[in-house]
Design goal:
- The protein is built from 11 helices and 11 strands.
- It starts with 10 loop residues before the first strand and ends in a 34-residue tail after the last helix.
- The longest helix has 28 residues.
- Strand 8 and strand 9 form a beta hairpin.
- By secondary structure, the protein is α+β, with helices and mostly antiparallel strands.
- The strands form 2 sheets. Strands 1-2-5-4-3-6-7 form a 7-stranded mixed beta sheet, sandwiched between helices. A 4-stranded antiparallel beta sheet has the order 8-9-10-11, covered by helices on one side.
- Helix 2 crosses helix 3 and helix 5 packs antiparallel against helix 6.
- It folds into 3 domains: 137 residues, 2-Layer Sandwich (Nucleotidyltransferase, domain 5), CATH 3.30.420; 49 residues, no CATH class; 116 residues, no CATH class.
- GO terms for molecular function: zinc ion binding.
- Pfam families: MULE, SWIM.
- It is found in: Nucleus.
């Protein structure tokens, strides 16, 4: 890989018997992309284990189209704190010493310790997908799972809007139910498969780039706020914005209180989780002077997209111009990102 691309980097270390112990290879493109999308990453080692007992360990971010993007990967022979610490330190060195603002992992104790050592300022969270995936495996065989436990658990996860609400619901779950744990490939085959997957990732991103600049998605309203997002966001992200714009039609904000420049609204909304639908009331705090806002649904914090509840409050207050802080840099299509200019052997014609 280094012979084909001088910008590539690889680190390999051996055990006492001169056998391959760990290997890390962030591509030049991945290293450059980290400057734009390395603020929030996931790190996981459960995807594949080859016949040598080495786990695949990718660093993954999210690009401007909402696609996953590889920010480095490797194979590790053991999942202990020492190995993870070395792995994270090497990756951090490759990324010019720029740590992520947040890192999401599964519930691995050794990984948690290594993150505290190498990324002490990063916000560390467990992955909800991993947690819920284990629920069925751990609890699915119990009669109570289908007769109420699952619904109670989903209520704790999806129906609570604050830490206090969640803790109260969780305690109720624990008390009510008295709740006081592959395909083999060789190394060459694996690297070939990894190479193929990376090629597909780059092709998908290139296709989305082309689509974003060649196709304009029409606005569904006369709102200048929607028009602003249309001008600046990639098509994939603009579609997400439009889903919220459509939702404004069903919103009827109720002014709960007003204290100087601060207003608090209640907004009732229908929420769907799997096959269920129900009405949920959200609260929105709105600063009339500088248009600062906070909605209890947390969509902007979680997905970087303004929710329909906030858009409805903007509409109710006659807000036509969107403050720049609501236009996220990472979703913009008018930014020429340096990593996309880096030549790679997947380019057309090679």
């Amino acid at each position: 890989m280094q012979y084909k691309n001088n910008g590539s980097f690889a680190l390999m270390n051996l055990d006492d018997d001169e056998r391959l112990k760990n290997v890390l290879w962030p591509y030049q493109r991945s290293r450059a992309a980290n400057q734009y999308f390395g603020d929030v990453i996931t790190f996981d080692t459960i995807y594949l284990t080859n016949r040598y007992g080495m786990s695949f360990a990718p660093f993954v971010g999210v690009n401007h189209h909402g696609q996953s993007i590889l920010l480095g990967a490797g194979l590790i022979s053991s999942e202990d704190t020492e190995t993870f610490t070395l792995f994270f330190q090497t990756w951090l060195q490759c990324m010019d010493g720029k740590p992520p603002k947040a890192i999401i992992i599964d519930q691995d104790g050794a990984m948690k310790n290594a993150i505290a050592n190498v990324f002490p300022e990063s916000r560390h969270r467990f992955c909800l997908w991993h947690i819920l995936k284990k629920v069925l495996k751990k609890l699915g065989s119990y009669a109570a799972y289908k007769s109420g436990l699952k619904s109670h658990l989903m209520k704790c996860v999806y129906d609570t809007q604050t830490i206090e609400e969640f803790e109260k619901c969780w305690d109720g779950l624990i008390n009510t139910y008295d709740l006081h744990e592959n395909v083999w490939t060789n190394l060459k085959e694996f690297v070939d498969q990894f190479d193929s997957a990376l090629r597909k990732k780059i092709e998908n991103e290139n296709n989305e780039d082309f689509h974003t600049f060649s196709v304009t998605i029409p606005c569904i309203s006369r709102s200048p706020i929607e028009k602003r997002f249309q001008e600046l966001y990639t098509n994939a992200k603009f579609r997400e914005v439009q889903q919220q714009v459509i939702g404004v039609l069903d919103m009827d904000p109720h002014l709960l209180s007003e204290d100087g420049i601060m207003k608090t609204y209640l907004v009732e909304d229908e929420v769907r989780v799997e096959e269920f639908a129900k009405l949920v009331t959200y609260s929105v705090n709105f600063n009339v002077e500088d248009c600062d806002r906070k909605c209890s649904c947390g969509l902007f914090k979680m997905r970087g997209i303004l929710c329909r509840h906030i858009l409805a409050i903007f509409k109710a207050n006659g807000i036509k111009l969107l403050p720049d802080r609501y236009i996220l840099y990472r979703w913009r299509k008018d930014i020429k990102r340096r990593y996309t200019l880096i030549h790679n052997r997947y380019d057309a014609g090679n």
